[in-house]
Each structure stands twice: as structure tokens, then as C-alpha cells.
Write a structure and sequence with these properties.
Length: 306
Amino acid sequence: MHCRIVGAPVQDGAGRMGCEMGPSALRTAGLVAAITELGHTVTDMGTLAAPLPRPVTHGNAALKALPEVAAWTALLSDAAFEASSDAMPIFLGGDHSISAGTLSGVARRAAAAGRPLSVLWLDAHPDFHTLDTTASGNLHGVPLAYASGQTGFAGSFPDLEASVDPAHICVFGVRSVDPAERRALKAAGVTVHDMRAVDEHGVAPLLREFLARVKAENGLLHVSFDVDFLDPGIAPAVGTTVPGGATFREAHLTMEMLCDSGLVSSLDLVELNPFLDERGRTATLIVDLVASLMGRRIMDRPTRSF
């Protein structure tokens, strides 16, 4: 497989600084080497420069850095569309607001190919607020709602050329959902498997069912991986920790099953805040998880000491 790495050092959508160092930390932890060692080719497109803020406003006074995030969204949408032309793009965040751009870009690519786009959202939060409903004003909480065509973004975020059908979205591993998001997810028809569902049924049956649907529809699959999908005990380098996340083996099994499916066409790695890490522990784990997604088998794991 040919992979394109795109760095998106965005921290305007988060509540604390540090995510802009995420792309550098993932590169330092050996992301490119881990992928190439598995036989893939990698083109590192470098790191995008911050665009000029867009002159946009909104009536919700709580919103933070709207002009900056709107500009990043437009830039990343174009970058994602280009990067996905003949390769699997891997977007290195940055906070989760980057997915407003990456998702809208790969949705355009899927529409151009005449194939449906599905999304697996691995996150402690569904990020399904609109600009009207967010109380914190942190725009890393809105990308999935925006990319799936929910109302409340017109005139502030770029107009969508293609959106993701909510029926093709699976939010997996959530454990912190605001009431407005819960109502919106249900109304939109998004599949939600929270951590209780994972506890009761396990990763495999839930994920297998979703992947079977994607395959039956001849769909492309975008995976958006937030560090806080993982339990903070194994991945401390994130500013939005929620206890009770995916364990080491649950996370690797998720990636191994995605690899086996052969369906993944694009990937986000977001919310890594190296300032909060312990000697690169979280960045190294993320690289190992990507290696599982790209074909590393369980008996080929390196021995590591921390």
C-alpha cells in the first residue's frame, strides 16, 4: 500500500495547548519506519502551515477560535481530497477539529469514486455538537456533526461538497456524551457502541457487524482515532482523559480486525499532547497500534520496556 503522511498541527479547537506537537512526536516515535518495515511505501507530505483566519462569526458567544478552525477546515479538506487520490492518507493531529476537514475531503473523494464513505469514530466523546449546542466552545467537539451534514454550520464553516451519511457512522468506545449530543446522535441514526456495550459484548462482535455492513455496501472506510479512546492508564498524553477506556488488547484487536477487513482507506490520529506524555509512552503506543492496522501480527510484536 502507498501511504501519504500529512501533518496538521492544530490546537485551536482544544481546551489546552500542546496538540500542535503531536505530528512531530509521532514522527519521532518512528511512525514512518513502522509502516515501511511492513512493506508499504510512505510519502511524508510534511506539515501544513497555519492558514490565515477566515472572516466568519456566529451567534454563540462561547465559541473559541472559530475563524482559525474554519480556515483549517477548508485547508484540510483540500489537502485530504488531494492526498486520497491514489494513496491511503494518514493525518497527524492536532486536536480532533482536524477531522472536520479530513472527513469532508475524503467524503468528496468517495463521492467522486461513486462509493459510500463509512466512518469508525474511536473516541471517548462523539464530537457531535453543532456550533449552536456546544457549551464549552471548544471546536474539537463538532467535527463529526459538521461532516455528517448536521445543521448549524452554514455561514461559519465551509459549505460541504459531500457529507457522510450518519447511517454509515459508528461511534465506538464513547463514555462521555452530553445530552444534546445524545439526542442528536439518536435523531441522525448514528450507530453508537459505548464502553458498556464493549464490556458486555466485546470488541469483536460489535466491530465485525459494522465492518460487514461496510463491505456489503462496497464502501470506503475512514478511521478517526482519538488518543482518549484509550484508557488514560496506558495513554496519559491527552488533555481530555475519561477513565474506563479501551485496554491495550482491546485497542490492538480493533486495529487487527481493521487490517484483516482490508477496508480502511484513510486515518486520523488526533489529540496526542506530548507535553502530557511520559517519556514518549503514548506516542510509541500509537505507532504500535498503527503498525497493527497496517499488518503487524501479534507474534511479531517488539519487546518493550517502559
